[in-house]
Design brief:
transmembrane; SGNH_hydro_sf; GDSL-like lipase/acylhydrolase family protein; three-stranded antiparallel sheet; transmembrane helix; membrane
Length: about 300
């Protein structure tokens, strides 16, 4: 599957999940509108508010990458398993090196490693979107299939599309944690960088209502709240080790606040519009920002 295929496989609009569910939602919305019309308010799934960055995480999430970090990564043999948002990050990696007037290491898409004596970044699509457990298994298989003996640093990243309100977060986290623990045991010379789950943008009020009516929960506040629950588990487990906190990077504004809100009593964060190319992917500014955090995490993990 090509990069274009992957990006087109993540639509900005998810299909309805069945006429019966849609009818039930529509009935509820109509009833809510009738009740609320006199009061002059409209049904929404969550509320917008700025959230302080330090409520969630610190670390290297938005750290400025240094020239020393860039040189270190250039000496490091890196494997990165991902799907389409990973392409955004890697585009940003090349841009960061250009901005520092330094040559980037070779960046090559393949499911093995090149016969090279110096540093490189090898990346590959892992698993299938919407199936996070399959991504974990594919990453494990690639590391055990030979890559683990040829790299210094390895990382896998979920996509926003893997986590929705129906995801069993505890099962995904347990599989992620247990797989990485076994890999770290069996490949002690490889530093495994962990990563939080990317986010989607905050939908507007009317868009949010439309998604709720259609049963499309992938781009709403509830989906981002589910991602935040998984991200909290990842931060709690790995906050003291090598962590690429892509969710913090995507949501944080330069003033330290984060796009997000609260839905059903649960906090969530969202992809900042300033960094968004669409509902879930990064524009050039967002890609370069995420790449800085990616490079910092890799540099911290590397022993080169």
């Amino acid at each position: 599957m090509t990069r274009t295929d992957i990006e087109s496989a993540e639509p900005t609009t998810e299909p309805s999940r069945g006429g019966r569910r849609r009818f039930g939602r529509l009935t509820a919305v109509v009833a809510a509108i009738v009740v609320a019309a006199g009061a002059g308010w409209f049904l929404v799934e969550g509320k917008d508010e700025a959230v302080a960055t330090d409520e969630v995480t610190g670390g290297v999430a938005t750290a400025e990458v240094s020239a020393t970090d860039l040189a270190k990564v250039s000496r490091t043999r890196v494997f990165f398993g991902h799907q389409s948002v990973g392409y955004n990050v890697l585009d940003g990696v090349a841009a960061v090196y250009r901005a520092h007037s330094v040559d980037a290491p070779p960046i090559e898409e393949r499911r093995d490693t090149p016969a090279a004596s110096g540093g490189f970044v090898v990346h590959a699509l892992i698993g299938e979107n919407t199936k996070p457990l399959d991504k974990i298994k594919d990453f494990d298989a690639l590391i055990r299939g030979g890559i683990g003996g040829q790299v210094d640093v390895a990382m896998m990243k979920f996509c926003y599309i893997d986590i929705d309100p129906g995801t069993d977060v505890d099962a995904v986290f347990a599989a992620y944690r247990d797989t990485l623990a076994a890999l770290e045991r069996d490949f002690p010379n490889v530093a495994f960088v962990k990563a939080t789950v990317p986010l989607t943008t905050q939908p507007g009020r009317l868009s949010q209502l439309k998604q709720w009516v259609q049963g499309n929960d992938l781009y709403g506040a509830t989906a981002n709240a589910t991602r935040e629950r998984l991200n909290q588990l990842i931060r709690k487990e790995y906050g003291g080790s090598h962590l690429f906190d892509v969710a913090a990077v995507e949501s944080a504004a330069p003033d330290g606040t984060r796009a997000g809100g609260v839905t059903d009593g649960r906090p969530y964060f969202a992809l900042n519009d300033a960094f968004a190319a669409d509902s879930g992917h990064l524009n050039a500014a967002g890609a370069q920002r995420a790449a800085g955090a990616w490079l910092s995490a890799v540099a911290q993990a590397s022993s080169k």
